[in-house]
Amino acid sequence: xxxxxxxxxxxxxxxxxxxxxxxxxxxxxxxxxxxxxxxxxxxxxxxxxxxxxxxxxxxxxxxxxxxxxxxxxxxxxxxxxxxxxxxxxxxxxxxxxxxxxxxxxxxxxxxxxxxxxxxxxxxxxxxxxxxxxxxxxxxxxxxxxxxxxxxxxxxxxxxxxxxxxxxxxxxxxxxxxxxxxxxxxxxxxxxxxxxxxxxxxxxxxxxxxxxxxxxxxxxxxxxxxxxxxxxxxxxxxxxxxxxxxxxxxxxxxxxxxxxxxxxxxxxxxxx
Length: 271
Ligand code: NAP
Prior knowledge:
The structure is a single chain. By secondary structure, the protein is α/β, with parallel strands linked by helices. The protein has helices at residues 11-22, 35-42, 68-76, 93-102, 144-156, 166-193, 203-209, 216-225, 227-249, 253-268; strands at residues 4-7, 27-30, 48-49, 58-61, 84-87, 107-112, 133-138, 160-163. It has an eight-stranded mixed sheet with strand order 3-2-1-4-5-6-7-8, sandwiched between helices. Helix 3 packs parallel to helix 4 and helix 9 (227-249) crosses helix 10 (253-268). 35% of the residues are buried. The structure holds NADP nicotinamide-adenine-dinucleotide phosphate (NAP). NADP nicotinamide-adenine-dinucleotide phosphate binds at residues 8-13, 31-33, 36, 62-65, 67, 88-90, 111-112, 115-116, 119-120, 215, 218, 222.
């Protein structure tokens, strides 16, 4: 069983390193500050520092979305001809474009649908990917062997690989992940401006603001990178808020009740 390389030992990269090491894989890794690699080596999770000029056969990039293309270009210049590289980024089109531009034929995009609002090595844990869907976005030129290797990696840590086109992925995630993040951020912003501390919230308020605690740097990257898909989603939300506002302003009980009941029916699903 060959070595696996990981770039970025934060929540996602650190959790992957823990599971792979537990499964008996030899993990080599690198991190911006070096602090996480030192800790992971101390625990026997990482064997040694990854050398980007002489990488192992499979490398996972677990850095923020907008730091990923630089690493793709860096690895495209390595001496290994059969190198397979994947990432974990929450958007896929720009990353696949970067791989195509760099001529990295062994690149296959990944996005594990697992994680939390916490970040960094200290938040990483074993079992994070168990039972999680992992979106797989092969490049136009990805060799079947590269796709198999990446899918096998995720299965080895309990993930469920699902193939999807990068454009379809970015549209879907704009709606089901990026919009909920924006709602929590907007809610946190509004409550803060209204002078309300988080301790004042009840269970419902705590639930709906959980994502307000997400990492600001990571989400800045995601939202700017996927701006063309995120903006129509924001418009749909703004329309819904405006409709609620006007129903309340007009004292239009029927309209307000219909809006509340419509969302309730959506949440309950088809009966
Ligand atoms: P994280 O905990 O903040 O870890 C990011 C890692 O990347 C850290 O090792 C960090 O090093 C390093 N890094 C940060 N900026 C960098 C830069 N400019 N160049 C090189 N390395 C840099 O983030 P994460 O949650 O693991 O996310 C990693 C990737 O997975 C992101 O692309 C994210 O979109 C994606 N993802 C996240 C989640 C989630 O729920 N968190 C879920 C699915 C996918 P330092 O420690 O030195 O800053």
